[in-house]
Amino acid sequence: MHYTNTDENGNVINLLIEMEKIIVRKKDKIILNSISFNIKEGENIAIIGPNGSGKSSIIKTIIGDYRPIAGTKGMVFRVLGKNRWNLLDLKKLLGTVSGDLQFEYTRDITVTDVVLSGFFSSIGIYPNLRIKPYMLERTDEIIDFLEIGHLADKNISELSTGEARRVLIGRALVHDPMILVLDEPTNSLDLKSKHKFRETVSKIAAAGKSIILVTHDLEDIVPEIHRVVLLKDGNIFADGDIESILNAEKLTDLFGIPVDVSKDKGYYHAWC
Ligand SMILES: Nc1ncnc2c1ncn2[C@@H]1O[C@H](COP(=O)(O)OP(=O)(O)OP(=O)(O)O)[C@@H](O)[C@H]1O
């Protein structure tokens, strides 16, 4: 187990995720090409890159939906020091919200039940599920924490996209995961909903969860995120502290067109 490690100065660090030489292939195409990076406990990162660069594939690999090619020389893939996980246990550790998860909720189900369904990794609550009192307590706690109590009895189909997205964060948080994984979470939200969503992410980061955020929108990178990974063609193009990565030179190189970057009140903006 390598969950606990030491850095070059002898300080103890806890590694949540260790990836070395990760190769993922789909239909004869290498979609992640020898990816290496670690995420330390308490660290928040953003992953940025052009369409098709492999951002969602990294997330799917981390949450166990995609498997790296086994037997690659020097390959390491560990979550909390373990290289073998029961998928359900892994999903408890990693709360996940993607921009399209809400479209899986096609039938009427209340906000409370959507949050509760996170305990079962299900899309809804069914009679065969054993709901325990602590689950209901935790669901109420999360609804309070996210300030969505006024929505609790509504059906998810009645909510705006922005409201539904915050409910899905609740679903991801019921297990008290160590890491919250957000894949393009502000897709199709209006300005106010994006603002509200970002405040929620900041609050969760301040509560001590690690955030892994995939986005096309630099404004989604809340000030609690200090590290950015740039991806291109299934490779890591750059990885470092936000100041050294989110600048015109790096983003111009990454996207192959002139990009300008500015920073205001802790948030970054890019335009071209
Ligand atoms: N299951 C799959 N089968 C075949 N090809 C796949 C599969 N998953 C991903 N790919 C391919 O891998 C590449 C990376 O896809 P991925 O979705 O990770 O990119 P992305 O950076 O998240 O893109 P976007 O910004 O458009 O969401 C793409 O060329 C995609 O077509």
From TrEMBL:
The entry's keywords: ATP-binding, Nucleotide-binding, Transport
Keyword ATP-binding: yes
Source organism, top-level taxon: Archaea
UniProt key word Ribonucleoprotein: no
A GO term for molecular function: ATP binding
UniProt cross-references to SMART domains, sorted A to Z: AAA
Domain called ABC transporter: residue spans: 17-258
Signal peptide (residue range): none
Pfam families the UniProt entry points to: ABC_tran
InterPro entries reported for this sequence: AAA+_ATPase (IPR003593), ABC_transporter-like_ATP-bd (IPR003439), Metal_Ion_Import_ABC (IPR050153), P-loop_NTPase (IPR027417)
Name of this protein: ATP-binding cassette domain-containing protein
